[in-house]
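Summary for the funding panel

The consortium committed to producing paired sequence-structure records for every protein in the target list. Below we show the first two records in order, beginning with the earlier of the two.
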Amino acid sequence: MARRTPALTIEQVVAQARGKSQRPLAVVVNTGDANSYGIMVNLGREGISVIAVASDPDNFTFRSRYVTPLLSPVFATEETAFIATLVELGKHISPKPVLLVNGDEPLMVLLRHRAELEPYYLMPLPSYEVALALTDKTAFYPLLDSLDAPYAHTLSPTSLAEVEAIAPTLEYPYIIKPSQSQTFSTVFGNKCLAVNSAAELIATYLRVREEEPAIILQKQILGSERYLIYGYFNADAQPLGLNAYRKVRILPTDFGNACVCETVADPQLVEMYLDLMRRLGYNGLAEAEIQRDARDGQLKFVEINARATTQTRLSAFCGVNMEYIAYQDVLGSPPPPVKNEQVGILWIDLYRDLFAVFGRGGYYAQGRLSPWQWLQSLRGRRIFAYFSWEDPGPALHLLARHLRVHLLRGKRLGELF
């Protein structure tokens, strides 16, 4: 049986958290993933006690030495009760704690209720309007267009008739992806689906629309140069922290999320990102995904996440602790701006990388990587997504969960990620 986190009262949670540190507390709304853990360990290593708010008692981040867990209602289905819990928590903490969040859905929940939360929390978060424009792809690409920022040709058909009219006019390949969804990859096994002909587009649309009523149709960016750039911007949209990295391997291997990243130093990439964020007047944490199109050699925006990033431990490892920078800034003691210039430093999600390389249809099966080349690729300075020697609890809990799932229940990888 898995050890479950006991349900403590708010008073007990606050008392435990205060007992770990005299510094102002941080409250992190998390969804139990590498992103969530990265935020907490980055703050914890700076001597900040973190209250982790989540609805799942088996949330692996609850096993961190840096965390005091608070079980909450489910934000997606019990929004009013969830916000009431945060408000009640905030009433018990003085001085105001810093509130951070992981995930697009909980971010938008917090921003919808910002007026209720701000009396009790310091919130280094963007405005609701900017966050909505970035998270909803039907608004995001017109926004890029209005700012003259480069992106792949994009359409937002709303009916089968529109798709049938568009299909014969396109120069394939294109991709279909959701305009705003957290379940697409779970249902279809990928972040987006490629189509190579008019007939395939229509057939795929008919399959997708049953699950996703709002979709984006976008010209596929060819090539494997995929970059991520992460930053924190103060209230004047000035960058106080920056780190850029490329996706070395992804899962799934065509349109998946990164399982290995490597830091890069690319002035063009950085300026492209900074220029857009300045024109947005952006405040808060944000990660942009940018890809170089092999057709024309141009860097193009893919998406912008208006929140912390999965690879946040990489930035901290490079000396740019983005969440701690945000914490200091909203408390009125912003540090001098810092940008990582170290190249070749790795971030590794080892569990997912094993599946990316050796799973069915992975890099090894495609003939793109041998076992020896894979081992060699993991050498050098590196940080792991989940494991740290001084805080092994979360990684050990995840390992036990994976063993239960794969050895005892026979679930597939797609049911975990």
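The next record, for a separate protein in the list, is shown here:
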Amino acid sequence: MVIGFIGLGDVGSRFSSGITREGGAQTVGFDLKFGLKEFQEKEDRCREYGVQLMPTMEAMVAKADIILAATSCADAIKTAEDAIPYLRQGKYYVDVNSAIPPIKRQLKEMIEATGAIFVDGGILDSPMNGWHKIPVALSGESAHVVADILNGYGMNMRNVGPDVGQASGLKILRSIFTKGLEALLLETFSSAWHYGVMDDVYGSIQEMLAREPINTMVERMVTTDVVHAERRAKEVGAVAEMLRLEHMDATMSQAAYEKLMWSARCGLKEHFEGKTPDDYKTVVAYLETLRSE
């Protein structure tokens, strides 16, 4: 079984190098950036670990049984278009780019028109944290097959379902929280710095996060939103106004105000009769009914 990589950047170079050196895999790779000075470090990494660098896309695809596309979300379709002329029945094409589910479904149609098998992938951590051992979600009818094979070489692949879009959805939807948290921290810290309370605010955040298990805190926030959304909205709305008066950016504060006001007005409190529900999933289930109305 030969594992091929389209794209040998931070992801592809570490995945391929890791499963070659530690997992004993036979790997091949191709990248359009071969020969560029700024790409030399990644080429050297692959050569050092035993990855066979192929001169063309055609040569790489022809030799590989499982192909992992690890370019970028913006290049996912172009990457597939470049590989399609050389794909054949029985080959697996695994797209691990951070593309949205509709793009992954489009890729499935394109790839499977050649007779090859498409698998949706979503990388759930930075490859710098664990190289090929970081968690990767896979979905699609043959996701379990690819997961079993690649896990045999030391990867950490998990089949999350039979439908293309489930793995990329898991990856992308997590970003609402992870990228949103990053944005919240930027606004919180810059505002705290302006008011001269940076260390105090940071310390307070650390204390809050250490006070109870993260799952307890997250679920409590969702369930108590049923009762307290409007009050919380007005509090953070006042913060947004304060920041604007100070000529500071209030993007996240304003967004929090608008989302919490939406929650306060969508009928949650009436549905739960003004009481905090025991299970946060009942809150989410109710919000899902709004989408279908």
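Regarding this second record: The chain has 13 helices and eight strands. Strands lie at 2-6, 26-30, 52-53, 66-69, 92-95, 117-123, 135-139, 156-161.
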